[in-house]
Design a protein that fits this description.
alpha/beta; 5-stranded mixed β-sheet; 15 strands; 19% strand; 400 residues; globular
Length: 400
C-alpha cells in the first residue's frame, strides 16, 4: 500500500450549487498532500479542469490558498502549484488536563502561533474558566487585526465527566462536584464569542496525530496517549471514530496483569500518575514531571522501572484490542520527553514480540510525532475541520 493511496481523497461533484463541498474537498486534499497544481487537483477530485480552476481562484481570492512558483514539466506550459495559506484561517484551542491547561492559537497548516500554559494541583471550573478568560484577553491583545478577523472558532479538549476523577487526582469530591453544573460550551462561547467545538481530550490528541502526524500513514490504527491518565483514540478507514458516547478509545479500563500477575487496569500501570506516586513515595516532588521544557533525565531510577511496567501492560492491551479489530498499527505518544517516548515505544515493541499472537497479525508499533501539545492542537483543529475540511468521520456515521 503506497502513501499516495493512503492519502487519497476523491469524489468531486460537478453539479451547480454544491461548490462548498468541492471547496472543502480541494482544501482537504491539499492539507493531506501538500502543494499541487490545478490539473492534479482536477484529476484527483474528478472535476472538470474548468470547474477546478474556478474553485481554486475563489479560494485564492478568499485568502485560503497561495499560488507557488511555476514548475516546468517535460511538455507543455509550466504548472502553478496551489498550497494552503497558513494565514488563511486561525483557531483557538483550550486543553484542560488533570495537572495543567493550555490555550493556543493554531494556523491553517497546524503551526502553533501563540500559546499560554498554566499548572494547578487539580482542575476546577473557576480555575479553568478564569484561565480561559484572562488568556483569551491576553491573546487577543497580541494579535494583529487581520489575525483576529480570521479566527473561526474555539475547540475545547477535556476529559469527559471530570467530576468522576477526584479520587485519581487526589481532590476533594465536593470540590469536583462543581463540574456537574458547569457548561463548557456556554462558558467558552460567552468568554470568546466564537463557535465552540467540544471533544474528549484523548480523542483530540488522536485527531492531531491523524491530521498532522504519522497517523496519515495508516488506515486503521489504535492511538495511545500517555498523560496523567492514559487514554487514546481509534482510527478506522482514515477517519477518527468517536463512538456512541464520543468516548471511543478509552483504553484506561482495559484489564491487564501487573508484574506479579495481579489483574489491574491499564490506567493503573501505564499512566504518568503512577510515576508520580513513585516519586512521592521516595520523597520527590512530582510536579517536576510537568515542568516545561520537560527533562526527566535526572529521574531515570524512577522512570525506567515505570517504563518497563507500562510497556508490558501496553503490549497486553494491544493484543486484546487487535483481537477485536484488525488494526494495522498502534501509535504511542504522550506528555513525555522525546527520549522517554522513544524508550517506551521500543520497550513496548520488545514486549509485544514475546506475546502469544496466535490467530492475530501483530500490529506495527509506531512512535507518535506531535507530543504533549497533541490535545491542544487536536482541540484547535476542530473548528477548522468543521468549516473548511471534509470531516469524514461525520460523513460516515451521521445517520440522522
Amino acid at each position: 500500500m503506497t502513501l499516495d493511496h493512503v492519502r487519497s481523497l476523491s469524489g468531486g461533484i460537478n453539479q451547480t450549487g454544491v461548490r462548498a463541498y468541492n471547496e472543502k474537498l480541494m482544501l482537504s486534499i491539499l492539507q493531506r498532500n501538500g502543494a499541487l497544481p490545478g490539473s492534479d487537483l482536477a484529476r484527483r477530485t474528478g472535476l472538470s479542469p474548468q470547474t477546478a480552476s474556478v474553485i481554486l481562484r475563489k479560494l485564492e481570492q478568499d485568502g485560503l490558498l497561495t499560488k507557488g512558483d511555476p514548475v516546468k514539466g517535460k511538455v507543455g506550459k509550466p504548472s502553478m502549484p496551489y498550497a494552503l495559506n497558513p494565514d488563511g484561517v486561525f483557531s483557538l484551542g483550550l486543553k484542560v488536563g488533570r495537572r495543567s491547561a493550555d490555550l493556543l492559537v493554531l494556523d491553517m497548516v497546524g503551526r502553533v502561533r501563540h500559546q499560554m500554559h498554566e499548572t494547578y494541583d487539580y482542575p476546577l471550573p473557576d480555575t479553568v474558566f478564569g484561565f480561559l478568560r484572562s488568556g483569551y484577553a491576553s491573546l487577543i491583545d497580541t494579535m494583529p487585526e487581520e489575525m483576529r478577523s480570521r479566527l473561526c472558532g474555539i475547540g475545547v479538549a477535556a476529559p469527559f465527566e471530570l467530576w468522576n476523577w477526584h479520587e485519581l487526582i487526589g481532590a476533594p469530591a465536593e470540590d469536583f462536584s462543581a463540574w456537574r453544573d458547569a457548561d463548557f460550551e456556554a462558558e467558552a462561547a460567552q468568554i470568546t464569542g466564537l463557535p465552540v467545538h467540544m471533544v474528549n481530550d484523548a480523542t483530540a490528541a488522536c485527531r492531531a496525530e491523524h491530521i498532522f502526524g504519522i497517523g496519515r500513514e495508516f488506515r486503521d490504527y489504535i492511538y495511545i496517549f500517555v498523560g496523567a491518565f492514559i487514554g487514546g483514540g481509534i482510527v478506522l478507514d482514515h477517519a477518527v471514530f468517536e463512538g456512541n458516547q464520543r468516548n471511543a478509545g478509552a483504553f484506561g479500563p482495559l484489564p491487564v496483569a501487573d508484574i506479579n500477575g495481579v489483574e489491574r487496569q491499564l490506567i493503573d500501570l501505564a499512566s504518568i500518575s503512577t510515576l508520580e506516586r513513585r516519586l512521592i513515595e521516595a520523597g520527590e516532588d512530582p510536579r517536576q514531571l510537568w515542568h516545561q521544557p520537560q527533562d526527566w533525565s535526572h529521574l531515570d531510577r524512577f522512570v525506567e522501572p515505570w517504563l518497563e511496567q507500562a510497556a508490558s501492560a501496553l503490549a497486553t492491551a494491544m493484543i486484546a484490542a487487535c483481537s477485536i479489530i484488525d488494526f494495522e498499527a498502534v501509535v504511542i505518544d504522550g506528555a513525555l520527553p522525546t527520549s522517554v517516548r522513544k524508550r517506551l515505544v521500543y520497550l513496548t515493541r520488545m514486549c509485544l514480540a514475546t506475546k502469544d499472537t496466535r490467530g492475530l497479525i501483530a500490529p506495527v508499533t509506531a512512535e507518535g510525532q506531535i507530543g504533549a501539545n497533541a490535545r491542544g492542537i487536536g482541540a484547535s483543529v476542530g473548528p477548522i475541520i468543521s468549516q473548511l475540511l471534509l470531516d469524514r468521520s461525520a460523513a460516515m456515521f451521521d445517520h440522522g
